[in-house]
Write the structure tokens for this entry.
Amino acid sequence: MRVAIIGTGYVGLTTGVCLAYMGHSVWCLDTDASKIQALCAGQIPIFEPYLDELLGAARPNLRFTTSYPDAIPGAEVVFIAVGTPPTPSGAPNLEYLSQAARMIGEHLNGDFTVVVNKSTVPIGSGNWVGSLLRDASEQRAAGNSADFAVASNPEFLREGAALHDSLYPDRIVIGADEQRALEVLYSLYRPILDQTFPAPTFLPRPEDVSAIPLVSTDLASAELIKYAANAFLALKISFINEIGLVAERVGANITEVARGIGLDSRIGPRFLNAGIGWGGSCFGKDTAALIATASEYGLHMPIVEAAKTVNTRQRDKVVEKLLHELKILKGRTVGLLGLAFKPNTDDLREAPAIEIAQKLIDRGVRVKAHDPIARERFEREHGTMGVHLCDEAEGVAEGCDALVLVTEWPEYRDLPWDRLARKMRHAFILDGRHALDREKITRSGMQYVTIS
Ligand code: UGA
């Protein structure tokens, strides 16, 4: 099928590459000319494992452009995957979405086209996008409206595992109020739903994956599914962090508690890692947007609000723990292991490391940091913030009064703790992710503490 994708961020680019890999003919459009130029030259603007390899394999079916007249006429499916960043009120900024919808509307050629919201958009946006498309197409075609239907196809991929989640998803959700739109999307996703595509050698099909469940529903339900999923994941993490507080007081081990409850199949083991809490561009934005939407209907969401409160508290706990150990923070040196909001990405949006670094700097602490991938992006986006960046994780330990593990990059598990301990002024580590080997670290003479 002929597909156009508007926006080449994480979601747009991953979707484009995966659909091209399935054999569809895909145009990826972005208004950022430098991004498109880079993509045409084979350079990928984001760090995402295996994206390079899959793009190589899908290349014959992929085209990149800044031009709507190139991408839209003739496309059977147009995905809108533009950014919807949060505004101060918590409601998402829909400027890019409305621009994209107007431009698509102006270039529809009269054949039936399904326009799909893949960006996380407020409930009701499907109808709104439909009206923008209609207005734009009518203006251009002097009264003859184009033939299109709007659908919602929320994305559930995790950064760092984006291709795995797109090729082998837990489910695909499509929502539309017109049957023919659902049928087009069903055909588009058929190779993934039936798992008939040849699995790439670098991303083999997991043994337990066969057919993928399809949730085919109405527009509003699909839109709400996305928010409800992210809010639930965020509150699952906040829940274990809240239990972690009690665990700490009563002398229980939160990792054991998480394992003990996670083995209950009604609860499940994932997203129960306690620590400094969730970051990234999605959970904060989507929980805020859900609360904002509910309040438009006069509804409160105390559970979702509590998930946010608990998450903020986890960041404060880092400072509290360091204060407890070091007594005075002014003039101390603290080293952060990890900057990215989670491993396998260089994304720094809502990264706990940035919040923690700022809190420490505000208290007169000298902050050092290391990240295997995100350093360059950190310097570009934050101009170092006064943080002293080190090339090696070991360098962070030099002269430090405390280390904090912020991002659980796998390589941090095997650091030479003996050497690090000797380099530190005060051999103390706060494991903010319950990711390190307590015994190994303690043997080095370093004091090991967790966040809960
Ligand atoms: C999240 C969802 O997991 C995806 O399903 C969704 O598609 C995506 O948002 C989105 O809306 O675009 P992502 O933000 O990439 O994906 O990252 P996650 O793996 O969910 O991690 C989010 C944060 O939670 C990270 O800071 C991570 O360290 C933290 N986390 C995760 C925990 O603190 N504990 C856990 O047990 C799991």
